[in-house]
Each structure stands twice: as C-alpha cells, then as structure tokens.
Amino acid sequence: MMGTRLRWPRLPSGSHALHTAVKARQRCSDIWVPQSISKNAAKPDNTTAHLINAGFLYQPNAGIFHFLPLGLRVLEKVERLVDRHMRSVGASKVALSSLSRQSLWQKSGRLSAGGELFKLRDRSGVDWLLAPTHEEEFTEMVRLSGTLRKSSSLRLYQIGRKYRDELRPRGGLLRGKEFIMKDLYTFDREFDAALKTYDEIRAAYRNFFDELGLPYSEARADSGSMGGNLSHEYHLTADEGEDTVITCSSCDHARNIEFVPRLAKNFHRLTNDALAQSKSVWPTSPVSRDFISEDKNTLVRVLVNSHGRSDSETKSSINTHVVKAALSGHAEVDTGIQEEAALDAFLAAKPGANPGPENGNTTPQRRIIYLLDKDIDLEHFLLGRKRDDSLGELEVCVISTPTGGDLDGSPIDLLLPSKGDTCPSCKTGVLDVQKTIELGHTFFLGARYSSKFNLVWLAKSSEGGSVPKPYEMGCHGIGVSRLVAAAARLRAPTGKEKSWSLQWPKAIAPYHISVICSTESAAQIEASHEIYDGLEREGFDVLLDDRTDCSFGWKLADIRILGIPIAVLPARKSGEKRWVVICPALEFEEDVQATEVLETVQSLMNRLISRSCGMSLPKNEIGDKWGSIRNKLSKDGAGFRLYPSRTPKNDAAFKGRLDQGEKLPKKDKSDQDEPNDSYNVNVQANNQGSARHNKLFTIQVKPSNTKEELKAKLKSAAEAKGLI
Ligand SMILES: [Zn+2]
C-alpha cells in the first residue's frame, strides 16, 4: 500500500522569488457589509444602534452580537493594545475554555449566588456553566500545574468570551448575554509583593487608557461579589453611561457613587426611660424615610435635614448605598421596597412569622433602628423622641456618627453628593458628578480563592519547620467589547451633514484614511494606488474606496458614518496631480499637490491626537516615557492635574494642566555622546472654561526623574512665580 506523501508548496522561481510580496490593498468593495451602510444611519438611539446601522455589528437576538468585518477590525485593535500593555507587566497570555465545572463554583461558594449564571448539564449528568469570569478555573489550574513551586509570582491573562444570563439586556454592547473581556490573574507569595503587583497593574491600566486617548477617571470602587477590600474602576465619561463617578476639582478624590468608605458609627440601644424624658422640640425638622430589613423584623427610619429642599426631594437624595453600609452588621436592608410598603410590611409581619436563624424557633426581636445623618445631633434626637406605642413592643436603637475627637472612619453622610459640593477629602475643591461607563476594574483578592482551593506555599515557621500559606491573588478586568461601544462617540449632524457620525480615537479607528479612488481611467486608478501605498508605508491603516456604484459625495458621507478620520480624493479636473484632503473633525479641507498629501495627513493626524489627549507634540518621540512622567506627576502634583481632555467642559473641572513641550537641545558639544532626553513641560492655568490657556511657567523634566524630584520642581517653580 502506498503511503501518503506530504506535498510542500513550490517556491516561485526567479532571483527575487522569496521577497515577492502579494499586493493586498484593503478595498472597500471587498468588505462585507450586510446592506448599504448609509441607508439606516439617520437616527440611532445609541452608539450600538449606530454601529449596527453602519455595518460594524449584527444583532441576531436581544443581548447577542456578531462582529462584522469593520467591527472585528476595531475589536482586534483594542485586543492588540491590551496585549501590549499586558506584556509591559510581564503577563503571559492563555485562553481558557468557556465551559466551567459547577463543582468548582460550589467550592468557592459562588454557585448559588449567581442567578445570572448560564447553567447546563451534559448527557452523562455533569453540571457545567458558561463562565462569566475565571477565578475558580485559574486558581485550580495553577494549583494542579504546580508551576508556582519555583517562582514566587505569576501573572496570567486571557481575552475571551464570557456569559451572563441577563434578564433584560440593555445598552447594546454595554450589557449583553455574551461579552468579551480581558481578565488578568496575579499570584504572589507575600502580602506586600501582592500590593506592589496591584499598583503595577493600576499603572499599566492608566497607560492603556492614556494611549486610547479618551477622557477617563480612575475611581475607588466597591468590590461587590469579588470580595477583597481594595479595588479601582476605570470609567469613561459618557452621557449614556449607567454609572456615576464623583471627582474633585483639586485633589485625587474620585469614587463610584456606590463606593462607601468605612463609616465611623455608634450603635445605641435605647431604654424606655431615655425615651420617656421627652422635653424639647426638634431644633430643625428632619425628613424621615423608612426602609425595611429583608426578614421584615427591622424597620429602619433614616433621618436627614432637608437643607431647604422639599420633603420628596430630600427623600430621593438619600444615598441607599450608605444606608446599607451603615446597617451592615445589624440588618440586611431591602432598598428595593417603596417607603409606604416598607412600613406596611413591618406592621403586617406578625411577631414570630419570620424567625431568625440565630433565634431558632423563638420569637425574633422586632425593632426599629433610627439612622441619623451626620448633621443630626444625637442629644437633640433623644430629647425630641416620644415613645411610639402604635408600633407595638419594640426594641429601639439608634445609629449615629460618634461625637468629639478624631473619627475612626468617615462620618455618616446620608445625602447623595451633588455637583458643586465641597470635597470631603481636601475640603477646598468642589465635586463634579458625571455619568460614566465602566471599562475596567482592578481587584485585590487576597487569599479569598487560594485558601478555598488550597493554593499554598510553604513558609518558614518560627520553630524552624514550615507552614502552608495561601497565595495572595488579584484579578483585573477590561471590558473589551463594551469598550468598542463606549469609545465610539456619536456626533449629531451639523450644518450640511445629514447623518450621525462616529468619532473613534486614532488608536482603534477601523481605518485612518480613506483614499477615494476615481475609476474613470487607468492612470487615475494607478495614481490612487500610489497615494494608498505611500500612506501605508508610513504606518497608516488605509482603505481604498473603489466602489463604482456610488458618488464621491456618498463616499465622503460614509467616512463620517464609519468614523474614518481623514479622506483623500482626486481634485476635480486636475488629472492625477492634485488631491483634496478632508478631515471632518477638524473642519479641514484643502487642495494639495500629490507630493504634499503625506505631509498634510501626518500633520492632521498629529492635531487629532493632541486634541484628544491634551498633549503637544512630539509625542511619538517620547512615546511611553511620557506615560511614566505623567503617572509620577498626577499624584498630588501641586494641585495641578495632567491630561484633562481639551473640551472646555472637562477643562473647567481642573485648575490647571500640564502640557508636554519641545525636546531640549544638547548643552554643548562635549555632551555629544550623551543624548539629552529632557523635555519642557508647560504648566498652564485654565481660562474660565475656555479652551485657551495661559502659560504660567515651564519646568524641564527627564523621564528618569523620580516622582519626588518632579514634585519639587513643580513646587519651587510655582513658588518662584508667587502662585503658592
Ligand atoms: Zn478634594
């Protein structure tokens, strides 16, 4: 019998055979788009709707999306950017299966908690789920593979599909049943090393979002079901966002509205005698709002001062996250029940109807807990109370902020912060409250998973033997598919434009330039190819719009709809010699020689980058080093914040800004061998919300400067100018 022989591809003959590249220009006519892209782009409800209309996405079912060629291109650019920043922290890339055994989730205690888990059973009766996250799988894999025996730390990440049985998918790509995430898991032996890892990952996240070139904030966050007590979120400012982030105009105070700092609180049980001594009236009339506990045995009556607002306004500005946090350890508050229903439910619940587990079958204590805002004085509260017998036999308790001396935590502030409030951290800045979209999250997990999965190492004990210690873990996510929807910003039609347009940051735009090709003559086609090839050689992503079934006007409308920043098209009646370069975002349109196209495009691209990230050039020269200078300075840098975007609205929130200036010349010829890598950094004052800024002073920085050196430079320069 004859064996099969492998056939090797035959090499083309000729002296340059190995160097012959296949010409593969990206032609518009080759991109599959299900329908004419301009047709439905008139009135999108949100960015995802526009992405569907424009042919980036296809939606077969609610909460499920297929990425089409244009969308996939953007997605892959985001993934490559993520990969680069993960490499910068030495993380190794893997790809785990989406199928995860339910028994692992039982072990971590997360199986029952997840009503949003997609569960399934195979034919041999094994229970699986479609993983929404991979802490269990990674911890188990690392334990069984034993790779940690030799090294003291490990960083593993993947970019993959995750699943969530969302009852009401909404916001398009922002909250669907399936989504694409980057998740990184870190393992360290010692607590201090794990904290250092955590800070390194945060710095990498800031570099990633800097390079993306969109305004974002890094906010303290609640760690939710992930556990642990240290976590940060990365938010993009966006009107269609479902999160709310509070930032300060002058310090680093930035937090999700759901994040409640550790509260300083006193818990008093009141006796009938204390209540009977009712003598005075309230100094102010507080507004009260009732909540009820999950077991219906505790009525929580929240008291806040109205500060001149109506009762209903005051009630609706009570921060339910603080209510829950203040009651933790005493009662589980159900904030989903309307106020009237809460009192009714409490009165209707018969004593003994809901025996608490701690009481066995005996009647649980029914009680009322008064929760006082920090502005309500406990003494006055007690004096103003009368016994309320209508509620039956009750235990009466009060939770309030301790008085006098230094507080061990934050005072109980029950009102939602609003724009213009004084910052609670620095007491000088004012707060801004913005709608945002959460794009990333870092969690310090500690030993939460490693202890349950017995992922341990042997530490030396004081007796000379060894003791097993669990690894300290962290997990860090970036919502890759939601980032695609969040980063595409929608712009309403202006002037002559008829349809909505997209504005992608350059880093992830599907293409940078569309070369609109005239197909009238072979010479014109050839000239378009030359322009295309020249731009591609310089590293731009170019699209050749060779469609023959639509006009130049239609093609120009399409670059707006698709968010391609620049178009190049042959000038009318110029043969192949002159070209028109158009950049809608900069309202730029100019007729240039064929030889000037590249230079014009480069300068437009630089203007677009500096516009989006508030940085003057030469960015490409200093590259990643700028990120490290920025990170060093942005921490309490003499009251100035780096890197607000150039929009007046965002700039108004900052006192000043730092812009990178020009590279400095070498001092003299003797320095010839030592490159001078110093740059000017201009410190500018914001001009009442205008996009123009007054330069205050300039400092010279080197990428090698330490944070302390940079702060000292800023401080002494500001002092010399009499600014501080
Ligand atoms: Zn502040």
What's the tally of helices? Answer: 19
What's the CATH class label of the largest domain?
A: Alpha Beta
Radius of gyration: 31 Å
- Tell me the major beta sheet: 9 strands, mixed
Q: Report helical residue fraction.
A: 25-40%
Structure notes:
The chain is of the alpha+beta class and 724 residues long. The chain folds into 4 domains: 71-218 and 449-484, Bira Bifunctional Protein, Domain 2 (BirA Bifunctional Protein, domain 2); 266-400, no CATH class; 498-611, Rossmann fold (3-Layer(aba) Sandwich), CATH 3.40.50; 622-720. The chain has 19 helices and 32 strands. The strands form 8 sheets. Strands 3, 7, 8, 9, 10, 11, 12, 19 and 22 form a 9-stranded mixed β-sheet that branches. α5 packs across α17. The protein is globular and about 95 Å long. 35% of the residues are buried. The structure holds zinc ion. Residues 248, 250-251, 253, 423, 425-426, 429 line the site of zinc ion.
Overview features:
724 residues; alpha+beta; BirA Bifunctional Protein, domain 2; Rossmann fold; 4 domains; 9-stranded mixed beta sheet; 6-stranded mixed beta sheet; 19 helices; 32 strands; globular; binds zinc ion
Task: Note the topology.
Blueprint: H1 47-53, E1 57-61, E2 64-67, H2 69-87, E3 92-93, E4 99-101, H3 102-108, E5 118-121, E6 127-130, H4 135-145, E7 153-163, E8 178-188, H5 191-212, E9 216-220, E10 230-237, E11 243-248, E12 254-256, E13 266-270, H6 272-276, E14 287-293, E15 298-304, H7 311-316, H8 320-327, E16 333-334, H9 339-348, E17 367-372, H10 378-384, E18 395-400, E19 431-446, H11 448-452, E20 456-460, E21 466-470, E22 472-479, H12 480-487, E23 489-491, E24 501-503, E25 513-516, H13 522-537, E26 542-545, H14 552-562, E27 566-570, E28 578-583, E29 588-593, H15 597-613, H16 619-622, H17 624-634, H18 648-651, E30 656-663, E31 679-687, E32 690-701, H19 707-720
Parallel strand pairs: 3-7, 15-17, 17-18, 25-26, 25-27
Antiparallel strand pairs: 1-2, 4-6, 5-6, 7-8, 8-22, 9-10, 10-19, 11-12, 11-19, 13-18, 14-15, 14-16, 19-22, 20-21, 23-24, 27-28, 28-29, 30-31, 31-32
Helix pairs in contact: 2-5, 2-12, 5-17
Bound molecules: zinc ion.
